Amino acid sequence: MMSRIRDWLANTPIDDPVDRRNAGFMQLLLVFEGLRIPLTKLYLFGLHWSYLHEHFYARARIGASAALAIDVGTDLAMTLSAWVGFYLIRRGRFPPAVAQFVATMLASGAVAYAAFGYHATDGNLTLMMILALSGLMLGRKALWITYAAEALILIMSVDPLKASGAGEPVGVLLAIYDLLPMRALTSYLLIALIVDRSIYALRESLLESDRRRQQLAREIAERERTHEQLLHAQKMDAVGKLASGVAHDVNNVFDIILGFSTERDRLPGEDEPMDGNTRAVADALEGIELAARRGTAVCRKLLNFSRNDVTLTEEFDAVAALEELRPLARQSLPSHCQLRVLLPSGPRIIRFDRSQFELAIINLVTNARDAMPDGGSCTITLEAAEDILAISVQDTGMGMAESIRAQVFEPFFTTKPAGHGTGLGLSVVYDLVVQAGGRIVVESVPGQGTTIRLMLPLVSAVSEMSGLRNVARAV
Fold first, then answer.
1. The domain defined by 311-470 carries CATH number 3.30.565.10
2. What's the top EC group for this one (predicted)?
3. Which long-range contacts (CB under 8 A, 24 or more apart) does 84-93 make?
4. Most buried of 3, 350, 368, 440, CB within 10 angstroms?
5. Separation between Cα atoms, residue 328 and residue 365, nearest integer Å
6. Of all helices (H) and strands (E), which one includes residue 153?
């Protein structure tokens, strides 16, 4: 039975962990006060009415009838406040519950002390309880506000009529000072100081423990991330070796096909007469040769990507590199996606690792492909302005929200379903560009597509841009 009650008291919708732990005790205290105050008053009224009237109400400054009304009214207010506080805690509103109970107790104490005086009341323990309660449950600020209110209550309890006979103003002030409950004021001050220091030490310990917990969580997350990166690197290494072997074997097959396709040279030339069948065979062999050369280019790129070469920075023409990369970029897109490449007429020289440059472009094209599941257009544009070369990869896909755009370069961040992406593509591109002294700009509008622009330092502009030539076509 007791365990059920304890579990029920602990089951409160309170977010703050400290308040949630204090909620059980606070509920018991409020229930106790909500029962103790009215039961005590009923006991005194029933069995000790004459003593209560003679030693308490009759000595009040405002008369017995008014004193009785104030006593009953304050007890009723404190009882209702206790049950209201209990209800608020059950609703998850812990600070308002404690604050309204403390405020009601202080207000009731102020009225009682003003009516009966300090020596005629027995509220020292109540004021001490309220002082400690406000500090432990609401914090240091509430503690000192409560102490200031209690000091004001004690000052209000002084009877100015007893000090009026001193005559001069200075004498009146000295008489009031003598009447002040200095022992209570200093005792409450010491209690407030002790509680304040205890709260400070507990809060600092809690904050330090929370900081250590967060640091430990970050270290664990970083270790798990590093472990995942290591596993992924091992997987990519195995995939690279497998792709290298497959590409090498397939490249040998394409070499054989190219060898056979060159047999068309034995056919009559363009200026010699040929019948329809011979012309069809010649065209077919030419198409076979073009397809085989395209397959050979793809295999060569795969072999380059799978090599574990050391970073080799060199100066090369980005225009020519994109021209050579166009077949592999085309292969990265499905048939329902178009590839458009807009390049300037002259060379644009950059300093970069050639294989890493190609890897970055293919990663961007692959991301464009994934953003257009229903088809669309991927446009690669190269523009030069002063000493900066801008390479843009634009898609007409679904775009992305600002919250996603802010995280696209984080390792392992992906919006793709499990098994369809590692979240490393754009992270790799970002690292490569930054290492080359460049930067990346991402522009995206949900529903309108995304443009990722690589800004690389230009080594030299050999010739002025005479315009863009559109080499885009659906292949």
1. yes
2. transferase
3. 85/26, 85/30, 86/27, 86/30, 86/31, 86/34, 89/12, 89/14, 89/23, 89/26, 89/27, 89/30, 90/12, 90/27, 91/13, 92/12, 92/13, 92/14, 92/15
4. 368
5. 10
6. helix 140-156
Distances 344 to 17, 168, 348, 353, 362 between C-alpha atoms, Å:
63, 101, 8, 21, 20
**Tokens of residue 266, six digits:** 């034995």
> In 246-318, where do the E strands start and end?
313-317
Q: What contacts 397, CB < 8 A, 6 or more positions away?
A: 368, 370, 371, 372, 373, 376, 449, 450
- Provide the residue type at 461 as one letter: A
Domain map (residue ranges) of the chain:
2-180, 311-470
The contacts of residue 87 (CB under 8 Å, 6+ apart) are: 97
- 386-423: per-residue pLDDT in tens? 788 999 999 998 888 887 877 777 765 566 555 455 45
CA nearest neighbour of 400 among 445, 345, 455, 333: 445
Least confident residue range of 62-71, 223-232, 235-244, 357-366: 235-244
Residue with the two structure tokens 């503690």: 143
The rounded distance, in Å, linking the Cα atoms of 120 and 67 is 12
Q: Which pLDDT does position 152 carry in this prediction?
A: 85
Whole-number pLDDT of residue 161: 45
CA–CA dist 454, 356 (Å, integer): 13
Question: Chain-wide mean pLDDT for the chain?
Answer: 79
Residue that is written with structure tokens 């220091």 in the block: 197
